[in-house]
Amino acid sequence: MRAFTSVTRAARLTPIVKRTVPYYTPVSTARFGKFQSLRLYSEDANGKKETEAKPDENESNAEDKKVKDLEDQLAAKTKEAAELKDRLLRSVADFRNLQEVTKKDVEKAKNFALQKFAKDLLESIDNFGHALGAFKEEDLEKSKEINDLYTGVKMTRDVFEKTLRKHGIERLDPVGETFDPNKHEATFELAQPDKEPGTVFHVQQFGYTLNDRVIRPAKVGVVKGE
Q1: pLDDT tens digits, residue range 109-136?
Q2: Are 197 and 224 in contact (CB under 8 A)?
Q3: What is the pLDDT of residues 24-50, one digit of tens each?
Q4: Which of 48, 71, 145, 185 has a CB 3.0–4.6 Å from the CB of 217, allowing a cystine?
Q5: Cβ contacts of residue 174 below 8 Å, gap of 6+?
Q6: pTM of the entire structure?
Q7: Which strand (E) or helix (H) includes residue 156?
Q8: Measured between alpha carbons, how far is 132 from 125 in angstroms, rounded to an integer?
Q9: To the nearest 5 percent, what fractions of the chain are helix, strand and coil?
């Protein structure tokens, strides 16, 4: 009984030692050669080879194409922006030119709006001149009434011409000036030994300008040359 118990205790106390065997299979050098190269791939369940991870060339080409497309779009937008800027500058220049032309047209219309009306008034001024020319100097000296009438007509003409000058209407009296076809209308020529040929020596009808524009040339007599 005691011997059985001792054996049992010894069995319990004795550790069970397991012998482990390396889990590998020797490779025959005769079958695969003396040196074995390292396998860089594995086979899946279907026996297909899985290659080692490399950069995706297709993805790189796609990125290059995308970059090129963006560069092309940028170049196109830059060209379009330059064209729009040029069109804007031209539009601004045209608008400013239009403003200047419109301003000049408005100024001309304002300055010469009285042209037709002024031409109608010139006949009245001419009549004042004809009336004053009808008075004789000896009659003015003899009669006070005639002298007063002459003075009244002359004052009325002067006031009338002063009003016209306020609105830019000036009288042309070119006696002694060189004949100018833009301002004068020659009605006759006469030789004058003491005067230079081509000069105005007589005014048959006064001319008038409106803001430096001739609205009626002066009718004059010109010295005839030899």
Answers
A1: 877 777 888 888 888 888 888 888 888 8
A2: yes
A3: 444 444 444 444 444 444 444 454 444
A4: 185
A5: 180, 183, 184, 200, 203, 207, 218, 220
A6: 0.53
A7: helix 144-166
A8: 11
A9: 55, 15, 30
